[in-house]
Amino acid sequence: MWRFVDLLANERQYKIQLLLKKNGAVSTSSLVTQLGVSIETIRRDFLVMEQQGLLKRVHGGAVS
């Protein structure tokens, strides 16, 4: 059974993927503003997505 938090995380990570495909890179601060979440939340999303091979974390953000 899906938890509500899991669905929100999946939706955020999908939006991050779309931005990466469009721009090639995203900044942590811009995602905090755009998605309305904390910097810690974005960092956790980056960690999960990096482990899945979807992005590479860099200082201040991530690249595709």
Distance between the termini: 30 Å
In terms of structural class, how would the helical and strand content be classed?
alpha+beta
Mean pLDDT reading? 92
Query: Would you report the number of β strands?
Result: 3
Largest sheet: 3 strands, antiparallel
Instruction: Enumerate how many helices there are, as a single number.
Output: 3
User: Hey, roughly how much beta strand do the residues contain?
Assistant: 5-15%
What Rg do the Cα atoms give? 11 Å
Using the alpha-carbon principal axes, give the shape.
Answer: globular
In which order are the strands of the major sheet placed?
1-3-2
Run of helices and strands: HEHHEE
Helix content percent band: 55-70%
Low-confidence stretches: none
Keywords:
64 residues, alpha+beta, three-stranded antiparallel sheet, 3 helices, 3 strands
Structural notes for this entry:
- Helix content is 64%, strand content 14%.
- It is an alpha+beta fold and 64 residues long.
- It has a 3-stranded antiparallel β-sheet with strand order 1-3-2.
- The mean pLDDT is 92.
Sequence-ordered SSE layout with sheet pairings:
Blueprint: H1 4-23, E1 25-27, H2 28-35, H3 39-51, E2 56-58, E3 61-63
Antiparallel strand pairs: 1-3, 2-3
Helix pairs in contact: 2-3
Summarize this structure briefly.
The chain has 64 residues and is α+β, with helices and mostly antiparallel strands. The chain contains three helices and three strands; from the N terminus they run H-E-H-H-E-E. A hairpin with a 2-residue loop joins strand 2 and strand 3.
